[in-house]
Amino acid sequence: MVGAGPYGLSIAAHAAAAGLDLKVFGRPMDSWRSHMPPGMLLKSEPWASHLSDPAGAFGLDAYAAAHGLSARHGEPIGVAEFAAYGLWFAERAVPAVDERLVRSLRPVPGGFRATTEDGEEVRARTVALAVGVLPFVDLPGALRPLGTDGALASHSSHHGDLTRFRGQDVTVVGGGQAALETAALLAEQGTRTRVLTRAGQLCWNDLPPALDRPWWRRARSPLSGLGQGWRNWSYAQLPGAFRLLPAERRTRISATALGPAGAWWVRSRVESGVEVLTGHEIVRAEPAGGRVRLEVAGPGGTLRLRTDHVLAATGFTASSARLAPLDPEIRAALHTLGDGSPATGPGFESSCPGLFLAGLVTASAFGPSMRFVYGASYTADRLVRGVRRRLRRGGPVRVPGPAVGAEAGAVGPGAIVVGSGAVGSGAIEVGAAGARAAGTGAAGADDGRSPAGAGAAG
Fold first, then answer.
1. If DSSP codes are grouped into helix, strand and coil, which group holds residue 329?
2. What is the architecture, at CATH level 2, of domain 141-203+260-312?
3. 45: which of 106, 114, 420, 436 lies 20 to 30 Å off by Cα?
């Protein structure tokens, strides 16, 4: 496993409880600790932000009670507190985590070989890969002329500290929770901040209704870990049924459901201190004497702006091609859906037998809940069941696709050979907090990101 974020730790807890010989790699909750600035809050409700262990003994409520914290409905939890909860969970529910990063993962006879950052090789029969969201960062094409070193333009998930922007002029691109909360934090520290969004207006989530509403109100609009209404309830509670929908419909829902919106508690902070330009899109960006010159198309024509930095909170696009640290030939051989994300079976197993996937990358298979921490419970339970089925099956298995190399066995072109072998009976979990760039981002769940979002894929 590459990392140990919310999904990875939850899977590890279930695997350990099932008696699997388990090895977990990665710095626990690293993305939450290193890629989110101080002051960020979870958009999701505390009761929808539990990591998952089979006995349900180590939920966020248990952590809060043990540390004298509030975890009440309608009161957002800080990202720092959530990260500390994840560490507490790992100490109690997961075997010792190896904090080295996994640099490469490839199939070998009998299973897989993982190579750590210091060159050690570890083998296992099955692998659970939950790389979070950072490998799938999206930056608008118009920003490419500004370079990739982060001096003039960067993604919001690349910043665990915003103080470098104090006293500067920053343009934030996006209209979701990531953009809006980041803009509020910037403005509150003395940064001149504007938000550019293509949408004609900003959308805001309402204050959540009370949990003890009359039964008929609950029946009309049930409350779930993904929000109000029967549609959101179905996404939250029925990911297995979601997987039975036609693939084209699943990918469309995954791309559009729970669209960009700000939390109710950040609205006044944005409206009081941030310039917002709705209906605007950057069409050109270029360096200009250490600053950035922007041309922005809007309802009134072209607008020209000067700014010190462009900070894109523009979400993520999950695709098999970005599934680090998988060997490139495995990535190329994986069966995919129409949006480029990997196809998975009901137990989260990819088309490469023994390779299991979790988190955002499975949203087009199991629905929007996989973008949030809320989906970790369903994933951990079903994925570990799938691992146990794979281990019981044994035997070499052929997977259509390019040959992966001599170590895959002499099966001829078009086959990846994986399966049982004398490499132990357990699982390496390659998961959420991942190889440096793996884990959750510092933004809203509505754009596929983490803490600032409705729970976030971990």
1. helix
2. 3-Layer(bba) Sandwich (3.50)
3. 436
Strand segments (E) across 336-384: 355-357
Domain 2-136+316-447 has CATH 3.50.50.60: yes
End-to-end CA distance of the chain: 13
pLDDT mean across residues, the chain: 86
Q: Tell the burial category of 200 from Cβ atoms under 10 Å away from its Cβ (0-12, 13-18, 19+).
A: exposed
Radius of gyration of the chain (CA): 22
For residue 448, pLDDT over 70 is answered with: no
Pick the closest to residue 111 from 433, 400, 394, 339 (CA basis).
Answer: 394
Spatial distance between the Cα atoms of 242 and 236, rounded to a whole number of angstroms: 10
100-146 per-position pLDDT tens digit:
999 999 999 989 999 999 999 999 999 999 888 888 988 899 999 99
Q: What is the DSSP letter of 251?
A: H
Environment class of 343 (CB within 10 Å of its CB; exposed 0-12, middle 13-18, buried 19+)? middle
Amino acid of residue 252? R
Structure tokens at 374: 């809320």
The phi, psi pair for 26, rounded to 5°, reads 130, 160
d(CA 3, CA 26): 3
Tell me whether domains 2-136+316-447 and 141-203+260-312 share a fold.
Answer: yes
| CA 363 to chain CA centroid, nearest Å | 10
Phi and psi for 283 in degrees, rounded to 5? -110, -15
State the Cα–Cα distance between residues 3 and 31, nearest whole angstrom. Answer: 9
Give the domain ranges of the chain: 2-136+316-447, 141-203+260-312
Residue 133 is given by DSSP the state S
Q: What is the mean pLDDT of residues 335-340?
A: 94
Cα(244)–Cα(368) distance, rounded to whole angstroms? 14
Q: Are 79 and 452 in contact (CB under 8 A)?
A: yes
Give residue 168's pLDDT band: very low, low, confident or very high (50, 70, 90). Answer: very high
Identify any residues that bridge with 286 across adjacent strands, giving them in sequence order: 293
- Per residue in 388-416, pLDDT tens? 999 998 644 443 333 333 222 322 222 22
